[in-house]
Design goal:
Blueprint (H helix, E strand, L loop, with lengths): L4 H14 L3 E5 L2 H4 L9 H7 L1 H5 L4 H5 L2 H5 L1 H17 L4 H11 L5 E5 L5 H4 L7 E3 L2 E8 L7 E3 L7 E2 L4 E2 L13 E5 L10
Parallel strand pairs: 1-2, 2-3
Antiparallel strand pairs: 4-5, 4-8, 6-7
Length: 195
């Protein structure tokens, strides 16, 4: 005989009360309640980027590192817009609820997320306890293979033309070598950029 919904909920509450730590796993749905777009499916993506719809470019087209070599202003416009959006977004109350649950445990919480938006860190989860399996849009790396290092995107302030989705501010480049930079974001199966 299977448990009723109420019994399952009671079990979950008991497990949370008895836990000495939490592992929080999250994907794209976690940011939707904060107002972040869900890029699953063409319609959601194109609603957020009408200029890319007119060009019939998909999320996969824009997430491909080759786009930075082919059309860097458009690639950086796409990532720059997202970076600004994620910087401006306030994490919803669910993040605070998770933190309060974690704060009641002796070992706190660890987060494993496929999101690149930095919302967990912004909500107060310690950086060293958040693993972003697709990287972070808040960090940059060398587009060519000049170094394996990553660095903060804090000094990058993108100005994006909403009508064209192209970056109007200067393209980011490494001050040491002049090489092009790339967001520290990857898609499963594509790995890190190789242009």
């Amino acid at each position: 005989m299977s448990d009723s919904q109420d019994e399952k909920l009671e079990k979950a509450v008991l497990w949370l009360r008895e836990a000495d730590g939490l592992l929080i796993t999250a994907g794209a749905g976690m940011g939707v309640d904060s107002g972040l777009p869900d890029f699953r499916g063409q319609e959601g993506f194109w609603r957020a980027y009408p200029a890319l719809r007119r060009q019939r470019l998909s999320f996969e087209d824009m997430a491909n590192p080759a786009r930075f070599a082919e059309h860097p202003e458009l690639a950086w416009g796409f990532y720059g817009h997202r970076l600004k959006l994620y910087r401006d977004t306030v994490p919803h109350e669910g993040f605070a609820i998770l933190r309060s649950w974690a704060d009641r445990t002796s070992h706190g919480a660890f987060v494993f997320t496929s999101n690149v938006d930095g919302q967990f860190q912004k909500a107060g989860f310690p950086e060293h306890r958040v693993h972003e399996c697709h990287g972070s849009i808040h960090a940059l790396q060398c587009l060519e293979t000049c170094t394996d290092d990553t660095w903060s995107a804090t000094d990058f302030h993108p100005l994006v033309n909403e009508a064209t989705s192209e970056l109007e501010s200067p393209l980011p480049s490494l001050w040491r070598s002049g090489a092009s930079e790339y967001p520290n974001v990857r898609r499963l199966g594509l790995g890190w950029p190789s242009v």
